[in-house]
Amino acid sequence: MSLLRIKKPSTRKGKKALLDREPKTIENAKKTLIMEGRKCSNDIRLALKDLNQLKKPNVKVLKKNYDISPFEDASTIERISQKSDSHLFIFGSSSKKRPNNLVFGRMYDEQILDMIELGITQFKSLNDFKNEKIGSCVKPLIIFNGYKWKLTEELRRLKSLIFDMFQKETIDTIRLQGVEHVLSFTITEDLTILMRSYKIHLKKSGLRTPRIELTEIGPSMDLVIRRTKIGSDDLYKLSLKQPAILKVAKRKNVTRDELGNVHGRVHIDKQNISALQTRKMKGLRKTVAEKKAKRKLKKKQSDDIDNGMEVDSADE
Q1: CATH number of the domain within which 115 lies
Q2: pLDDT per residue over 227-246, tens digit each?
Q3: How far apart (Å, rounded) are the C-alpha atoms in residues 97 and 78?
Q4: Would you say residue 292 lies in a domain?
Q5: DSSP notation for 285-310
Q6: Residue 97 structural domain
Q7: Given a cut of 70, is residue 213 above it in pLDDT?
Q8: If we measure between CA atoms, which residue out of 60, 14, 30 comes closest to residue 239?
Q9: DSSP 234-278
């Protein structure tokens, strides 16, 4: 039995590449792999090109055509995804049985978790809209319209997959002037998914908040669901598990302000002020009369104890 030899990297670039692939508490932005099948129509090529523009810079485009069927044998996609460190993939193909076909999928533990096949029934590319576009690295707002996204588990997984596909790095705060792009996904009564892309214009409104106007910039797609292959519920829950270090434990009476400072509130019992040790000053000393009264009280309490009477501690 021969053991598999693992060659250690000898260059700084190779060490950095392996270090980047190691598990992290906060993972990197997910990279998308874009592939073409053996046969592709012009609409599929334009659609993959436009999706590449929306996904930049977290995208890797393969120029080679692959004669594979992801739903029958996905080993090639799993191998290429592992080699390129890509967690998402888009596979485009076209055939007589399934024209203008797009397969969206995502990986977990170097295996395919979810995979959904969509057919394009209507398509307009970015070049069909003759207007001003946005930058390639702008983080979009993602909107899902329609109540049917929650009807079945396949639709819920598709919504989650689309969100994973088009989101970029996670941010904590946003600037209003930096919100420029909107991706809208609307599901109709016949389960057709309408994908639209808009540019946001901020206009004067006379108020503190500006007036919003949207201009469609493309791409525009009408998608129908063809085939689905989703992972089991147990595997899906396992893929959503987060490290314990990221879960902030709730601490009672502890808050954190906007600057990150920790503020705590402490509750204590009512203090007996008469028992406090204060500074010994001449003016705070007891008088001779107070001392005599205290001695008489103690003598009275001791006599009562000798006579078998109960002494009230409140008299002290």
Answers
A1: 3.40.50.10480
A2: 999 999 899 998 888 877 76
A3: 25
A4: no
A5: SPPHHHHHHHHHHHHHHHHHHHTTPP
A6: 30-246
A7: yes
A8: 30
A9: HHHHHHT---GGGSPPP-TTEEE-TTS-EEE----PPP-GGG---
Q: Could you tell me if residue 281 is inside a domain?
A: no
The CA distance from 32 to 164, in Å, is 10
Among 200, 198, 137, which residue's Cα sits nearest to residue 168? 137
Give the residues across from 11 on adjacent strands.
none
pLDDT of residue 17: 78
Provide the token pair at 83.
């080699």
DSSP run (H or E) holding 184: strand 181-187
Q: Kindly state the average pLDDT of the residues 214-224.
A: 93
Count of alpha carbons within 13 Å of 232, Cβ hemisphere only? 3
Domain assignment present for residue 84? The answer is yes
Q: Are strands 32-37 and 59-66 parallel, antiparallel or unpaired?
A: parallel
> Is residue 267 in some structural domain?
no
Distance between CA 195 and CA 190 in Å, rounded? 15
| pLDDT above 50: residue 316 | no
Q: Which two tokens stand for residue 236?
A: 């899906």
Q: How far is CA 29 from CA 44, 121, 166, in A?
A: 26, 31, 11
Average pLDDT of span 59-65? 91
Closest by CA position to 225, among listed 98, 47, 65, 68: 98
Residues 118, 47 contacting (CB under 8 angstroms): no
Structural contact between residues 86 and 32, judged by C-beta atoms closer than 8 angstroms? yes
Q: Residues 53, 58, 61, CA angle at the centre, nearest 5°?
A: 65
Question: Around 87, how many Cα atoms within 13 Å sit in the side-chain half-sphere?
Answer: 16
On whether the CB atoms of residues 117 and 61 are closer than 8 A, the answer is: no
- Number of independent structural domains in the chain: 1
For range 13-20, the mean pLDDT: 81
Nearest to 222 by CA among 33, 34, 43, 36: 43
